Amino acid sequence: MSDRTADDPETYDAVVVGAGFSGLYMLHRLLRSGYRVRVLEAGSGVGGTWHHNRYPGARCDIESMDYSYSFDEELQQEWQWSERYAAQPELLRYLNHVADRHDLRPHIDLDTRVVSAGFDDAADGWTVRTDTGRALRARWCLMATGCLSVAQVPAIAGLDRFTGQWLHTGAWPKEGVSFEGKRVGVIGTGSSGTQLIPIVAEQAEHLHVFQRTANFTMPAQNRPMTEAESAVWKSEYPQRRAHARTSGFGHNQPQNDRRHADMTPAERLAELESRWAAGGLHMMRAFADVMTDAEANEATAEFLRGKIREVVHDPEVAELLSPRGLPFGTKRLCSGTGYYETFNRPDVTLVDVRSAPVQEITATGLRTTTAEYELDVIVFATGFDAMTGSLSRIDVRGEGGKTLAEAWAAGPRTYLGLGVSGFPNLFLLTGPGSPSVFSNMVNSAEQHVEWVADLLDHAHHERIGRIEATADAEAAWTTHLADVAGRTLYSRARNSWFHGANVPGKPQVFMPYLGGVGEYRRRADEIARQDYAGFQLTSR
Ligand code: NAP
After folding, report:
1. What's the gap in Å between 377 CA and the centre of ligand 1?
2. What Pfam families does the annotation carry (predicted)?
3. For 428-451, what is each residue's pLDDT tens digit?
4. Labelling 490: which of 40, 98, 213, 254 has CA 20 to 30 A away?
């Protein structure tokens, strides 16, 4: 159903930036509708997050049966996940399989970074320029650039002097890294660090873990996926996928609908113990009000501190590993295997860099305000310029040459996390303002892709050439987003990447939508039914 001429080989109906979960499915949907599409991907392979995050221990903390595409019934019946939580190599194999299965590769340019995207008012279209010197024109520009794709290395003085090897978890070398016999320092104890640390500890001569903020790490309770378990999931996929789509977080973990105050002490303890045994992110749903009621939240936090004390032999180390002063879950809950146990090893040292911050990297290691550490390898598990980082690195210019950086100077503003006023025909997939990082990303990616694909099909049939979020709709959504977040405990813990606090100078705004996947989908579908209320649709 192409609405463009094919005369110019660099003219397309749509350009998609990124070939991760969102970009691959977006490409598939648009090809199926007959569009001319080009996907531009900076990485040397498809897979997005799972292409870049190859650090030892990297695995998803949403169960594989949920964290997978639902759009291809045969695929979801055929594919056999080997573990409850798939590790990075298996996820990457899966995404490569999808690319081959749907013959997507001929439409993807790898090793091609988009440097700018400019809207042409007269043509109602975008010109997308790459670091390889190409200029692609398309009516629709679809940003599938990911929420956690720009590695954040802290500006610590002296890194250029370091004579050892340094790495960031989010940009891990394909050939891997050996830690055998090495003195290793890991900076950062978020989701990446807590997965990596137990594995590095097994290999390194000595591991120093530099912790600034303790975070809660649940035992993943990972295990091999049995055929019987997989068969049950597959037979129940219609109900389970439907449930995920209307749930809070886009997956099938059970939610306790009872409030903490309405349960007896014995019931609360039984609930917490069963969530600990279930592992992973189950604890986030222990009580209906765990993220809105301070008492329910602190009861959960104290239960987990008790678990840390049970596991870690040295009481001082256990206390240092116990999060204090920020509500449970307001920094992303981590899920790992053997994390707390690792600190019982004689060859692992926990260093508190809150009381004695890292001052500089030296030629041979790292110096805090109180001590010096000799290191052969430094691993930065220091996170990402999240949600806006990948977009802010592209020079995006909308109507009248206005830049996205200007439009978002005080933090991202979107309508539904999909459209931006002043930037017609540009759509963000799982962008800021949508549930994205507060959900099973694959579920949210599918919902965005399908919603945008339906909108573009509608535009084609109705001969609409320009679609733009109105300023009013964007303002109302931005207010709604802040209102929803303001009703939760997240508003009390601003020191997280959810707020942009981990990147110096970044505006501090709570970026994802906390209203839940089901509620978000209901609103987005309702808007579509109302002829895309809040978007201005202009005929060609
Ligand atoms: P992160 O959650 O942002 O954690 C970064 C860590 O580095 C924090 O402990 C932070 O301490 C520390 N840090 C940063 N700069 C530092 C400095 N200058 N000195 C000392 N410490 C410093 O990053 P992440 O672990 O890569 O995870 C990011 C997100 O990716 C997760 O929240 C999750 O959504 C996703 N993820 C998911 C999985 C999974 O599915 N299992 C795995 C990995 C990542 P402060 O807290 O004090 O800032």
Report:
1. 19
2. FMO-like (PF00743)
3. 999 999 999 999 999 999 999 999
4. 254
Instruction: Calculate the alpha carbon distances from 198 to 192, 238, 347 in Å.
Output: 11, 37, 11
| Residue whose CA is at the smallest distance from ligand 1 atom 48 | 502
Asked if residues 190 and 331 have their Cβ atoms less than 8 Å apart, the reply is: yes
For the chain, counts of helices (H) and of strands (E): 16, 20
Residues 6+ apart with CB under 8 A from 175: none
297-309: pLDDT as tens digits: 999 999 999 999 9
Is 151 touching ligand 1 by the criterion CB < 6 Å?
no
416 shares its domain with 498: yes
**Same domain for 516 and 402?**
yes
Q: Is 224 part of any domain? A: no
For residue 400, is it within any domain?
A: yes
What is the CA(381)–ligand 1 centre distance, in A? 6
Q: Which of 68, 332, 436, 494 to mutate to test the pocket of ligand 1 (most atoms within 8 A of CB)?
A: 332
Indicate if the pLDDT at residue 186 is higher than 60: yes
Span from the CA of 17 to the centroid of ligand 1 (angstroms): 25
Q: What's the CA-to-centroid distance between 53 and ligand 1, angstroms?
A: 13
**Are 402 and 520 part of one and the same domain?**
yes
Q: Are residues 158 and 204 in the same domain?
A: yes
Ligand 1, atom 5, lies closest to the CA of 382
Statement: residue 233 has pLDDT above 70:
yes
Lowest mean pLDDT among 3-7, 184-188, 288-292: 3-7
Average pLDDT value over all residues in the chain: 96
284 Cβ neighbours under 8 A, 6+ residues apart:
249, 290, 291, 329, 333
* CB 85 near ligand 1, within 6 Å: no
Tokens encoding 473 = 């709709």
5 domain-assigned: no
Is any ligand 1 atom within 6 A of the Cβ of residue 189? yes
Phi, psi of 60 (to 5 degrees): -80, 150
Q: Is the CB of 187 under 6 A from ligand 1?
A: yes
Structural domain contains residue 227: no
Q: Quick one: 494 and 436 in the same domain?
A: yes
User: How many Å lie between the centroid of ligand 1 and the Cα of residue 416?
Assistant: 26
| Predicted TM-score of the model (pTM) | 0.96
Q: Ligand 1: which of 21, 339, 382 to mutate, judged by most atoms within 8 Å of the beta carbon?
A: 382
- Verify that 375 and 394 share a domain, yes or no: no
pLDDT, tens digit, for every residue of 364-423? 999 999 999 999 999 999 999 999 999 999 999 999 999 999 999 999 999 999 999 999
Residues 517 and 405 occupy one common structural domain? yes
Name residues whose C-beta falls within 8 Å of residue 510's C-beta, 6 or more positions apart in sequence.
481, 482, 485, 490, 491, 498, 499
Q: Is the CB of 148 under 6 A from ligand 1?
A: yes
Number of domains in the chain: 3
Among the listed residues 137, 120, 147, the one whose alpha carbon sits nearest the alpha carbon of residue 398:
120
pLDDT bin (cut points 50, 70, 90) of residue 2 is: low
Residue 431 and residue 273: Cα distance in Å, rounded?
Answer: 35
Residue 73 is part of which domain span? 10-150+386-539
What CATH number does residue 342 fall under?
3.50.50.60
Q: Specify whether 322 is located in the same domain as 341.
A: no
